[in-house]
């Protein structure tokens, strides 16, 4: 029982660390997206803000699951975690569909414009590292506690890292395309 409490404390600590990483990634990406005129980095920043909200849900679920059994809930509160994991996966899917739709719409409706600064690619590369660290924290804590919500939060951070890879490629490709056209 005591070891279980230690694992729960580890999961809560890891989730708080991930919350601060996600908040830092959001602020970093948003500031540089505005300064570099990178729409893809701004979309990535909004995804990081969603990660902050999702991590908040995970913290909430961990606080509920940690409650002791009572007369109304003789088996405990463990099922809350599966509900939160489902909500997280639904939010991740919804976000992916919205960002894909918005990207396609802009591809066909916005004319040629100045490509973003390569600094946007550097910031996205930093984000890849931060999100990978957050993913590892969640995976480690989630596996030790067998927590579906913490593992789902790890998957969200992994998805954010993959999105940041796409941002790096998009910024570099936009700048390369401008150099090809200019020749």
Write the layout of secondary structure elements.
Layout: H1 2-36, H2 39-65, H3 79-109, H4 119-145, H5 148-182
Helix pairs in contact: 1-2, 1-4, 2-3, 2-5, 3-5, 4-5
Structural summary, described in words:
This protein is an all-alpha fold. Helix 1 runs antiparallel to helix 2. It is elongated, with a radius of gyration of 19 Å. 37% of the residues are buried. The mean pLDDT is 82.
- Total number of strands: 0
Question: What does the average pLDDT come to?
Answer: 82
User: What distance lies between the first and last C-alpha atoms, to the nearest angstrom?
Assistant: 69 Å
Main structural class: mainly alpha
Give the CA-based shape.
Answer: elongated
Poorly predicted tracts of residues: none
- How much of the residues is beta strand, in percent? under 5%
Radius of gyration (Å): 19 Å
**H and E order:** HHHHH
Helix content: over 70%
Main β-sheet: number of strands, strand sense, barrel status? Answer: none
| Number of H/I helices | 5
């Amino acid at each position: 029982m005591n070891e279980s409490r230690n694992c729960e404390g580890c999961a809560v600590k890891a989730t708080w660390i991930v919350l601060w990483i996600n908040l830092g990634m959001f602020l970093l990406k948003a500031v540089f997206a505005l300064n570099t005129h990178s729409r893809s980095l701004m979309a990535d920043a909004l995804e990081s803000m969603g990660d902050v909200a999702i991590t908040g849900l995970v913290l909430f679920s961990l606080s509920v699951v940690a409650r002791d059994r009572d007369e109304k809930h003789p088996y405990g509160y463990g099922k809350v975690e599966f509900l939160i994991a489902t909500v997280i996966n639904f939010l991740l899917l919804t976000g992916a569909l919205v960002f894909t739709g918005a990207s396609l719409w802009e591809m066909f409706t916005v004319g040629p414009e100045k490509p973003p600064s390569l600094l946007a690619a550097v910031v996205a590369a930093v984000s890849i590292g931060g999100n990978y660290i957050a993913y590892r924290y969640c995976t480690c804590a989630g596996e030790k506690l067998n927590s579906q919500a913490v593992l789902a939060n790890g998957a969200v951070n992994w998805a954010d890292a993959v999105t940041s890879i796409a941002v790096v490629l998009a910024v570099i490709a936009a700048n390369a395309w401008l150099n090809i056209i200019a020749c």
